Structure formats: C-alpha cells, structure tokens
Amino acid sequence: MLLGFVLVAASCKKSSPQPEKPQAASAPKADTQTPKPAPKVEVKADVNAVAAPKPAVPAKPDVNVTAPKPAVTDTNNVAAVVKPAGDMAPIPIVLPKPMFVGTPGNFQGITNLEKPLGKPREPFYAPKGTTNVASKKPVKSSDEQPIIGEIEMITDGDKEATDGSYVELGPLKQHITIDLGASYNIYAVIIWHYHKQPRVYKDVIVQVADDPDFITNVRTIFNNDEDNSSGLGAGKDRNYVETAEGKLIDAKGVAARYVRCYSNGNTSNDLNNYIEVEVYGRP
Q1: What pLDDT score does 65 carry?
Q2: Do residues 113 and 241 lie in contact, with contact meaning Cβ atoms separated by under 8 Å?
Q3: Which domains does the chain have, with CATH numbers?
C-alpha cells in the first residue's frame, strides 16, 4: 500500500510541467506589395459655368462715321436755321402784337400753302454782330404815289398792324426797293405785309443786286410765283399766311447793297400792303 503511494507520487513529480520560456515578439513583416496608384478623377467642364470675363479691348474709331451736322429746320415753313453757338447768335427780332389767333380758313385758289407752325418761330442764328441794316434806310417804290401811307414807313421800325402803320400800293404787280447804302453780307430778310387779318400775298419774290436798277449781279433769294405770272421766273417756295411774326427769309450771307420785294395782290383784294421790311446783315 505504501509502495503504491510512493510510485504514484514519484510519477506525479516527473510530469509537472516546466514554465515556458517567453518568445521574442516577431517583427511585423514588411509589405512587399507595390502600392496601387490612386484612382484618377475625371473633372468634367460645367457647360453652364460663366467664363471669366476677358479684359476689355478699346474700340477702334470707325473712320466711316461722319460727325452729325447741325439741325436745320424747313426755311419755307418756320424760316429759321438752328445753328450751334460759338461765333453765332440769334438775331434780335422784336415782334409786333398779334392781331388774330387760331388757324386761318381756306384760301380759295391758293396752292402749295405751308401749314401754320402753331408755336413761336425758332431763333434764327447768324454771325455775331449781325443787325438790321435796313433801319431808316431810303426806300423807293414802283408806285410813286401810294394809296395809303408813305414809302419811308417801310423802314421806320413800326411793325404794328394798326391804322396809320402800313403803306398801301396800287393793284397788280408792285415792288419796293431798299438802298442799304453799302454792300453787306445779308443773312435774313423779314417782311411784314398787312397782318391785321389772315391773308396770303401772291407772287412774293425777293431779289438782291449791286445796282438800283437790278441789272448787275441780280440774285433771287425767295420766289413763290409757281406759274411765273409775274414774269420773273417760276418759283418753288411755298405760299404763307401773314402773321405778326412776318416772313423770315434765309439769305445765306449773300453780299449785296439793294433789296427788292415784289407782290401781286392778295387773297382779300388786288392791292399790295407793306408794314415793315428788315434786312439783317454785316459789312
């Protein structure tokens, strides 16, 4: 019994397990595989994106563009040319009192009649220093004995359409001639016929010349005798209604000493009336 116990004990002692030696930690294996390249990302252009603005390129001047010309009004209608300032200035026109208002009626037998402007005439520009060179200057007439008034009244400065302010010449074609006393560059001629009531004077013709008999260097600056009934040539200017503004004729700087105005009766009678004539010029 004792012997068995000893054998069992010895057997147990031999088989007791020995403590394990600690193993060294193994180093991590190097990754020998070649790293894969990063995937390419394709960037697509946004067709809706706004492109950055390009730097502005200064525009080249267009050599074919012409500078605008001064505005010119219809000289047969408003009888005024609007010109730029500078060496030009409005001529100093003093108007008489209007004697009627409203639109004139029909004038039987009158054709090519300009429409009333319906507002004051635009200023008329001429070189600075332009004045009325006809003021108080001598006047002669084809009718040496007027029915009413005196010939000198045509340049006396009175433009009113009142009794005692106008001259009445005989019937049919008549004319008056103003001697300016010297040659002037003439820019405008303004005629006031009888304007107490609306009338149209027929065959209104204005000429300038270098001599009193109108033989030398005669030039016509206005003519509305469309059928040549006065024998001075057919004109293309328009008929017009007499008003307090008178008829302003653009003479375009023509050089002359004498100014002659014709008429051939009017729509009220066969007589010829003048209240005032002004001639705007410079020496």
Answers
A1: 38
A2: yes
A3: 88-282 (2.60.120.260)
Burial (Cβ within 10 Å: 0-12, 13-18, ≥19) of residue 3: exposed
Instruction: Sort 154 into a burial class: Cβ within 10 Å, 0-12 / 13-18 / 19+.
Output: buried
Six-digit token string for 67? 């500078």
How far is 132 from 138, CA to CA, in rounded Å?
14
Candidate from 5-9, 133-137, 159-163, 253-257 with smallest mean pLDDT: 5-9
Q: Specify the residue for token string 């030398």.
A: 216
**For 221-235, what is the mean pLDDT?**
97
Within the chain, residue ranges assigned H as helices are 2-14
Residue keyed to tokens 């147990």? 12
State the residue for tokens 């359409």: 161
User: Which residues fall within 8 angstroms of residue 180, CB to CB, at 6 or more apart?
Assistant: 133, 134, 137, 256, 257, 258, 259, 279, 281
Coil, strand, or helix at residue 25?
coil
For residues 159 and 192, the answer to whether their CB atoms sit within 8 Å is yes
Do 166 and 69 touch, CB atoms closer than 8 A? no
| Per-residue pLDDT, 119 | 83
